[in-house]
Amino acid sequence: MAISDSKDRSRRSAAVAPVTRSSKPAGAASGGQPVVEFRGVSKHYDGGDVGLDQATFSVVRGEFVFLVGSTGSGKSTVMRLLIKELDATEGTIRVAGHDLEEIARKRVPYYRRNIGVVFQDFKLLPNRTVYDNVAYALQVTGSSRKEIRNKVPDILRMTGLSTKLHNYPDQLSGGEQQRVSIARAFVNHPPLLLADEPTGNLDPETSIDIMRLLYRINRAGTTVLVATHDQAMVDKMRRRVIELSRGRIVRDEATGLYARDETTREFAHRMRGDGTRPPGV
Amino acid sequence: MKLGFFLREATRAMRRNAAPTFAALATVTVTMIMLGVFIPIVQATKGAANTVRGRVLVDVYMKSSATSSDETRVRKELLSVPHVKSVEFVSKAAAYAQQSKQDPAAYALLASNPLPDTFHVVPDNPSNVLAIRSSLTPPATGGGAGTIDQAIQTVSNHKDDTKKILEVTNLVTITAAVLTVLLTLASVLLIANTIRLSLFARRREVEVMKLVGATDWFIRWPFVIEGIVVGAAGAIAAIVVLGVTKVALLDPLANDWTLIAAPRTIPFAALLAVLLAAGVIVSSLGSGLSLRRFLRV
């Protein structure tokens, strides 16, 4: 696949990229400023494996983007590059205008505070309660105790965990743990939220709840990038899809049409239905 | 606020990881007890070796006809020999008094004093004793060993004994030094390894902390504080054991065993301070440094 081709596609889709206009002024201008920009990015691992091969795409503010592809296609590489856990072998990655190459190792923690991350295996701190897990994300930024006392219960209420504040992660179901992890990722209100297979360990019904939560966060103005291989979920969501195969971008398009200012309730209804045609479209 | 937070984090970690924390604490305790026992033993052994070496002298026996003017002249000559530190004169009478005190029965049998006037020649370094001896006894013209002064009857000839003492004490000193180095190394490695194991169990936790944007020191401080607490607690436990042992077992024996009462060993209070400092420093540095590997995420 030619590089210029995928570039063109990404540009086109950025222009068409649906933005939930009703709720955010920031994303109002179509194709607004890119939050994430990959330009000719390659990643070669030490063993000679190619994680990513000349990937070029950009994501504008307020977008909800799926990254799909089979195992080993490079989805996780994109995620790990974005949190600067890895450095690109080639090309430029810009997040909110900052070239990741230029961020010194010492500044990486400060950079990461602007990105919420959600993982398939939740990555919760096992020795802390739900409350403390979420509070930790605020503590690292040096928030005052008062701030923590205000924000944490709010975010936990939003994610439906008000009754589980003092439980430890191993006392929660998978769906609940993923909610905690999302709450932790979102408590700082980061402009960008990355989710790497967030529903990989969950049953379909719970998965819908989790996607609904991510959608809600997206509607509040956060750019959301979800890596998944759950094709059914992607088809139902009808959001922009970037497909990777062996490190190359093979598809980048908005899947069909969908209501731009769909409420989360409508969204959930559509997700639970057989999803061939979303109501009202 | 910050310090309070780190302290709370450290205590939480210790409470929630009781087993590894206890393992680290026990390791520190055992190592510190080992060091606490070993340091005085090494010192006493070295002290004893040095005392033995200090006894390595050259004895110069005067002829029984020697006069007091011979004595002054010989003393001067002896002092001019290289490597001689000092010279001590023991007169016949003094030697007799000393010896008969040690063994009154034997000396009571003797009618007269068989002992000669003697010079104890103290070398500047015990290993030079043989050099002194040979310069005191230059080869005589007629063959055999002569002496540097005609008033001298003989120069003590403990060549083999001296050599043995020097060799043995050297060996003891070197062995003690090597053992000290090895034991210290072993303690540091043992403590570092235990800490590393307990950190390894928590490396996922560190990884998560890094992912939510914690700086290295934000993660590290609680671990260092934990190290300080564990090190101090372990050292204190060791100190209590050593203290009880000293009071209950060693002190009553000290009068009978010169090795235990050896005056050159470290004072007990200083020993305890050394152990406490070593425990705290080794384990806090150990956790701080071992963590580095896991911080590279």
User: The biggest beta sheet of chain A, please?
Assistant: 6 strands, mixed
Please give the order of strands in the largest beta sheet of chain A: 6-7-8-3-9-10
Give the topology string of chain B: H per helix, E per strand: HHEHEHHEHEHHHH
Q: What is the overall number of helices of chain A? A: 9
Number of strands of chain B: 4
Distance between the termini of chain A: 34 Å
Task: Describe the protein.
The complex is a heterodimer of chains A (281) and B (297). By secondary structure, chain A is of the alpha/beta class. In chain A, 34% of the residues lie in helices and 23% in strands. Chain A has 9 helices and 10 strands. Mean pLDDT of chain A is 83; it is low at 1-30 and 275-281. With 297 residues, chain B is of the alpha+beta class. Chain B has 2 domains: 2-52 and 166-295, no CATH class; 57-157, Alpha-Beta Plaits (2-Layer Sandwich). Chain B has 10 helices and 4 strands, in the order H-H-E-H-E-H-H-E-H-E-H-H-H-H. In chain B, strands 2-3-1-4 form a 4-stranded antiparallel β-sheet. The mean pLDDT of chain B is 82. Chain A binds chain B through residues 83, 85, 106, 109-113, 117, 123-128, 136-137, 139-141, 144-145, 184, and chain B through 1, 5, 12-13, 16-17, 204-205, 207-216, 218, 297.
Short characterization:
Chain A has 281 residues and is α/β, with parallel strands linked by helices. Chain A has helices at 3-16, 75-82, 108-112, 130-139, 145-158, 174-186, 204-219, 231-237, 264-272; strands at residues 34-44, 50-60, 64-68, 90-95, 98-99, 115-119, 192-196, 223-228, 240-245, 248-254. Chain A has nine helices and ten strands.
